[in-house]
């Protein structure tokens, strides 16, 4: 299966009351490289009107953005009972 098809197999239990990844918008504006846009395997970071947009609903909990972001992220795992449910095959 293609990577997109494999991602579609997974299930996401979205926590509407708690965002496990939070961007600091002010710090984000001063970041020129914007590595999150290129590094997130789920493509959750995008540019819109020059600003980074983010939707944590499809997060794979891989931690890549936590590593590549120079300053603007608060990152935790989702609360118990929420987040991705990986399904293989
Ligand atoms: Fe994307 Fe991984 Fe960060 Fe989730 S943890 S937003 S999948 S880079």
Automatic annotation (TrEMBL):
<keyword id="KW-0249">Electron transport</keyword>
<keyword id="KW-0408">Iron</keyword>
<dbReference type="InterPro" id="IPR012206">
    <property type="entry name" value="Fd_FixX"/>
</dbReference>
<dbReference type="InterPro" id="IPR017900">
    <property type="entry name" value="4Fe4S_Fe_S_CS"/>
</dbReference>
<dbReference type="GO" id="GO:0005506">
    <property type="term" value="F:iron ion binding"/>
</dbReference>
<keyword id="KW-0813">Transport</keyword>
<dbReference type="InterPro" id="IPR017896">
    <property type="entry name" value="4Fe4S_Fe-S-bd"/>
</dbReference>
<keyword id="KW-0479">Metal-binding</keyword>
<dbReference type="GO" id="GO:0051536">
    <property type="term" value="F:iron-sulfur cluster binding"/>
</dbReference>
<keyword id="KW-0411">Iron-sulfur</keyword>
<feature type="domain" description="4Fe-4S ferredoxin-type">
    <location>
        <begin position="19"/>
        <end position="50"/>
    </location>
</feature>
<protein>
    <submittedName>
        <fullName>4Fe-4S ferredoxin iron-sulfur binding domain-containing protein</fullName>
    </submittedName>
</protein>
């Amino acid at each position: 299966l293609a990577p997109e098809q494999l991602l579609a197999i997974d299930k996401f239990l979205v926590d509407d009351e708690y965002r496990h990844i939070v961007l600091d918008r002010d710090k984000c504006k001063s970041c020129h490289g914007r590595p999150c846009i290129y590094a997130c395997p789920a493509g959750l970071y995008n540019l819109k009107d020059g600003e980074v947009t983010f939707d944590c609903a499809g997060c794979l909990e891989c931690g890549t953005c936590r590593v590549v972001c120079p300053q603007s992220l608060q990152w935790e795992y989702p609360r118990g009972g929420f987040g991705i449910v990986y399904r293989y095959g």
